[in-house]
Design brief:
Elements lengths: L4 E6 L4 H9 L4 E5 L7 H13 L3 E5 L5 H10 L3 E4 L5 H8 L35 E6 L2 H5 L1 H4 L7 E4 L1 H7 L9 H17 L2 E5 L3 H9 L4 E6 H10 L4
Parallel strand pairs: 1-2, 1-8, 2-3, 3-4, 4-5, 5-6, 6-7, 7-8
Helix pairs in contact: 1-2
């Protein structure tokens, strides 16, 4: 995943917004079940809109509930974003939920959307490779990053800069030297382990700076913020 990609965080369910973002060339959309308003019905509608308009639909699950993860995969999510992971054992445990046996322990039901409702041309279950996208957002994870990034199944590493800033005692201060140093440390480990990193950038300047440091997937903010920002500019 070395090709630069552009995405956005979604907390507001809307197939119409999903469609517009896909038409604008957004490569991926992260549908948020932790802080957003998504449920199984709204996830399905937005995942369908993503597929129609060529924008990969990833889901940030609300936590580390295997059943929730399995249901999101069965809906056809192209990737699962995991929040709140602490040490190595957390990362290894959820990595196993991404794949069917023998490589993982994902439950198999070929009659769901991901299995094309039981009708496969090759008579096999869903053979896609949904992306495993853990968020590095705890200092414990940062301390164990060398071991964590040795997990082969990790496809994309998301840097949870806001949570990290809070834990570092500089909440929301994106330019604070302590946070910048931590981000650079994570990016250095990503380079070492040949893992693609992703994080948020709220300005073109920051996005360019992050790309120069090796970030390959930029999340250009959150839908609610970007929509309100655009409307505020209409009012003189």
């Amino acid at each position: 995943m070395s090709q630069p990609r552009n995405g956005i965080w979604r907390v507001m369910p809307s197939p119409v917004v999903t469609e517009m973002l896909g038409q604008c060339g957004i490569d991926f959309q992260i549908l948020d079940c932790e802080h957003g308003n998504y449920d199984q019905q709204t996830l399905l509608a937005d995942l369908m809109a993503c597929e129609i308009h060529g924008s990969a639909g990833y889901i940030r699950v609300s936590g580390t509930d295997k059943v929730e993860v399995q249901r999101c995969l069965d809906l056809g999510a192209k990737g699962i974003v995991f929040p709140g992971l602490q040490g190595l054992s957390d990362f290894e445990r959820v990595a196993a939920w991404m794949d069917y046996a023998p490589t993982g322990n994902r439950g198999l039901n070929p009659f769901v959307r991901a299995g094309r409702y039981g009708i496969q041309s090759d008579a096999k279950a869903d053979s896609t490779h949904p992306l495993f996208i853990p968020i590095i957002e705890t200092l414990e994870a940062v301390e164990q990053l060398d071991e964590i990034l040795s997990i082969p199944r990790i496809d994309l590493v998301y840097l949870g800069t806001y949570d990290l800033s809070a834990q570092l005692g500089c909440a929301g201060e994106m330019a604070n030297p302590k946070l910048v140093e931590t981000i650079d440390r994570i990016l250095g480990q990503c380079r070492k382990h040949h893992k693609s990193p992703s994080t948020m950038a709220l300005s073109p300047e920051l996005a360019a700076n992050l790309r120069a440091k090796g970030v390959t997937a930029i999340v250009h903010g959150v839908d609610t913020h970007r929509i309100k920002e655009a409307f505020c500019k209409l009012v003189p």
